[in-house]
Amino acid sequence: MSKLTDVPKRILIGRALRSDRLGETLLPKRIALPVFASDPLSSVAYAPGEVLLVLSVAGVSAYHFSPWIALAVVVLMFTVVASYRQNVHAYPSGGGDYEVATTNLGPKAGLTVASALLVDYVLTVAVSIASGIENLGSAIPFVVQHKVLCAVAVIVLLTLMNLRGVKESGKLFAIPTYVFVGGVFILILWGAFRGLALGDTMRAPTADYQIKAEHQGLAGFALIFLLLRAFSSGCAALTGVEAISNGVPAFRKPKSKNAATTLAMMGLLAVTMFCGIIALALVTKVRMAENPAADLLHNGQPLGAGYVQDPVISQVAAAVFGEGSFLFVVLAAATALVLFLAANTAYNGFPLLGSILAQDRYLPRQLHTRGDRLAFSNGIVLLAGAAMLLTVVYGADSTRLIQLYIVGVFVSFTLSQIGMVRHWNRHLAVEKDPASRSRMIRSRAINAFGAFFTGLVLVVVLVTKFTHGAWVALLGMVIFYATMTAIRKHYDRVAEEIAAPEGPSDDMVRPSRVHSVVLISKIHRPTLRALAYAKLMRSDTLEALTVNVDPAETKALREEWEVRGIDVPLKVLDSPYREVTRPVIEYVKSLRKESPRDAVSVIIPEYVVGHWYEHLLHNQSALRLKGRLLFTPGVMVTSIPYQLASSEAAKLRARKRQEWNAPGAVRRGPAERPKAAPAGKD
Amino acid sequence: MSKLTDVPKRILIGRALRSDRLGETLLPKRIALPVFASDPLSSVAYAPGEVLLVLSVAGVSAYHFSPWIALAVVVLMFTVVASYRQNVHAYPSGGGDYEVATTNLGPKAGLTVASALLVDYVLTVAVSIASGIENLGSAIPFVVQHKVLCAVAVIVLLTLMNLRGVKESGKLFAIPTYVFVGGVFILILWGAFRGLALGDTMRAPTADYQIKAEHQGLAGFALIFLLLRAFSSGCAALTGVEAISNGVPAFRKPKSKNAATTLAMMGLLAVTMFCGIIALALVTKVRMAENPAADLLHNGQPLGAGYVQDPVISQVAAAVFGEGSFLFVVLAAATALVLFLAANTAYNGFPLLGSILAQDRYLPRQLHTRGDRLAFSNGIVLLAGAAMLLTVVYGADSTRLIQLYIVGVFVSFTLSQIGMVRHWNRHLAVEKDPASRSRMIRSRAINAFGAFFTGLVLVVVLVTKFTHGAWVALLGMVIFYATMTAIRKHYDRVAEEIAAPEGPSDDMVRPSRVHSVVLISKIHRPTLRALAYAKLMRSDTLEALTVNVDPAETKALREEWEVRGIDVPLKVLDSPYREVTRPVIEYVKSLRKESPRDAVSVIIPEYVVGHWYEHLLHNQSALRLKGRLLFTPGVMVTSIPYQLASSEAAKLRARKRQEWNAPGAVRRGPAERPKAAPAGKD
């Protein structure tokens, strides 16, 4: 097999599969769109409904403001898309908002963005799954009757999938996303055709209901506040837009251009769907309320606690396609599926961002290396745990969860756009070429407007939603920020402590001699191997050490030592309490005390077994001893493993683990090529 | 400080404190009695009641059989005590029933005894605490109303105490045990005085109730069966008698004689209390039923589900002292306390037996070394978990739990006594001295009678209780037996696999050269130290190895390497997927492939920190790499620790852990003096 004969080559280029994988991984636009856009596109499943919900506070008459709010959302969407097209060109490395903010506004701004994004990932999971369950529930009543249970079950399922490392594939995203987009477009077109060409009167299931306005005849400041709140809720449609700017490396070349085009396509699709659904909702007289049990009336009577308010998209589909019809069911299923995919997005983005933060030492270092299953697992479990907590606390109610959602998004939008303005300022200061300058000035204008607009929306969101739940999101951000600051401080403190002294390394006090000690319990293959290896190391002195836990066994050991004529002196430590660790530690300390400039090398034969329960039966004393020896200065601890037959099982498992796919591999693109330091011997 | 200057001496004799501790640990008889007898003495708190309960099945008229049953229990108690006095003399090492059965009947019999004892320890906890709660409940109704909760709380408390290693002290046992014994004797004497001298009519709280016999007018075989069942229940009074035979080493000299005397005292106290309570119960007309809600009638009406049946000892105390009187409350409290101490006995005995079983490789080896906190903790948690499960399943009902209890005790009694008969046979085969021979023949007769009687009781218990719950205990024994057999098989298989080949050790293929590799991530004190130590080891070749995870960092490392003029070649491994483990493993494998007879020494600098959460931030890659390297043949793995300032905290904790007292230390006595192999250099 070439795999086995070609080891040096494999070391140089990693795995034989690497280059194949590389081609497989790069995304054409038609696949990149669903991979990155399932999150923003899926939000049109709930954003229009949220607008109507808020407006209903002022009664059904306020619904006529909804086109204006839709318009504001459209303008905002175009602004954000245009802004991020600049980001994509300026930062093709995929660092996204965190990189932009850190580079241009400093580490604190960057960390703020990172905290906001981490909170957002949690909420993406919670909101998308809650909404997915509600959409599924419009077709399958059981699901909505056991909302929390079903939502938690979906979270658990997604978590297990991601923990197991199910390979992400572009197609997995493409099919449901395109079915969803296609379904919504058919819905809009068929609705328009029926309404305009056939002149049908389409009526939503709730068309006959009346809305009891909580505040009748709102006007002036109160009305404006309500409209702003409705607008804030509509902004939920913008969540996830920034995802593409994190994924530039995954695109085919020209990466930035393709990413920018995909961004534009995504924006266009999103606003069309958003506006279409709002329009159909108005035409079919969808009636929604924040508190439907009390505020929706049928023949003057409140509908009561048993009433389940279906999502706007499903009500519109019921009106256009007919409730329970084939297309209605297909659209409901596709909507739910695309929302679950959107949730899955967070499972991929969370460890990706974690890896970048780890590189900057805000999170444990091991998150930085790819394919670290343990680290990814911890991140995934943390994400799932937080999302599940929110789901349970908020009863899997998407409307209540959305109140928390938008703050984080707009924090990162705003800081990123401010950062981009700085970015262009910096470049303009040195750029001489007039053509480049004018392009930069144009980009700066776009980003400046983007910063202004998103900043304004952030203020609006904060003001209108703080008491509705945005404070929870802010609290989450503060916790992430504080934790990451603490981790960074720890790393900095350690780095200072271990910094090498100036000058050549000979400055270090180098021990003059090394005294090796091989721990022996019995004479068998592992200990004989350890003795053989220890002799190879040619330390200054070498002795075998045993602890007299059982006098009879010790006596037998001495005798066999003699019989075999082993040419290493055997030292026996007494242990009146049948302990192993303490006598060895004290002996090592005494050696160090005798000659403080010497080092002591403790050599421990170890069994290697294949199952954790076998491991419990071996090496426990060795493990404890090793743990304690590490705290003893001037010591090195050597394990000499002896592979028992059963260890083959573990090797097989390790090989399987190697083939594990880290979540988010598709959207992350291939690893960067090393820019320096070609491999090979110096 | 002499502590620091006297290191070699401390190594020889362990700790400076050792000899002091030794004196402190040996028990005089007056302390040994409560330490070992709290379990058997406390069982008189429930055993008499159990006899009455069973008899009540045949109606109150059957109560007149109870003196005969008490007599049978007394005879059995004397038989068992007499038998164990032989054990104590013949096996002064404290191995107990397990040792006796293994030595004389073979390992299978020994393992059966061990399984029975392990099950018994679990049941001692469950039964004693359930009964303690019931006794406490007779004074404090709240406790008995929340029986399961309180029982579980006591188990948790005992578990935490034992996990923390609260130092066992003889006095802790002495006071409640003597208060309890004293209280019961005052009860009996005062009752006798009131009844005989004053002619008072003492009436238990239940004296007016009638018992509805489940089987009226039982006769013939059915009656005999019921009497045997009542006798079986009464045998609960014998549980724990064997404890002294495990604890001979803890006695002052002459150990065996003192232990035998203590055993006799214990037997005498137990039977006196048992008979006294039965007698008082008959005089005061205590009425108890297995199912009191339905079978106890007051004025012809069943008492109903709300009725709580108080233990016999508390009913008698209420009759003699008056309900709620000072002595009544003191006796209830002392009874509960002594029962909780009896439960604590199991927490001490379980790890002690575990340590002996570990020596014979039926349990993980590390249980054998004393003071191994982790191993003890696992044992304690296992014990507590099993006891808690039983408590919850059986609703903390001592009567239902006792059905499970007695099987294990009599399995070990019987096998131990049969073993003793074999023991004497073996000795008689070689003994010539007529005086010794006649003593041995006498002992053999006692043990033979003991074996016969306890074996008979075992059969009776099995027949009368199997369906009542004894099958659960048997199932538990089977599980323990199977697990221990599997562990032993594993150890035997491994021992065979690793057995050293015959002849001198040079038979082993010894690697010819050693190639050392120091893993480097950055240049700092830990890596410089590792390099210095690695140079000391004088391996055949030495190189530094780094994985190119981040090209910029790698470049900086190479430059600093040059600047510092480090005279070890630096090799850079490429890692396209930013992994650390795989490139290193493959490189090591390639080295081995180039020269298969050489060994590879991988040297890993490691940070040592003081808190687990700090540990999460460091060494994770090193840990994973070490784990994988152990599976690679021909490799030795050396950790060179660098102690960060925060590691001081861990050192302090380690020192505290050293002062931890293993549960059961008092009853175990001081560690044996080594019989051979005095310490010191060869």
From TrEMBL, chains A, B:
GO terms for cellular component: membrane. GO terms for molecular function: transmembrane transporter activity. Keywords: Membrane, Transmembrane, Transmembrane helix. Its main location: membrane. The keyword Oxidoreductase does not apply. Residues 658-682 are annotated as: Disordered. It is found in: Membrane. Residues 669-682 have a biased composition (Basic and acidic residues). The keyword Transferase does not apply. It is a multi-pass membrane protein. The chain crosses the membrane at residues 65-84, 111-133, 139-160, 172-193, 218-241, 262-283, 326-353, 374-396, 402-424, 445-463, 469-487. It comes from the Bacteria. This is APC family permease.
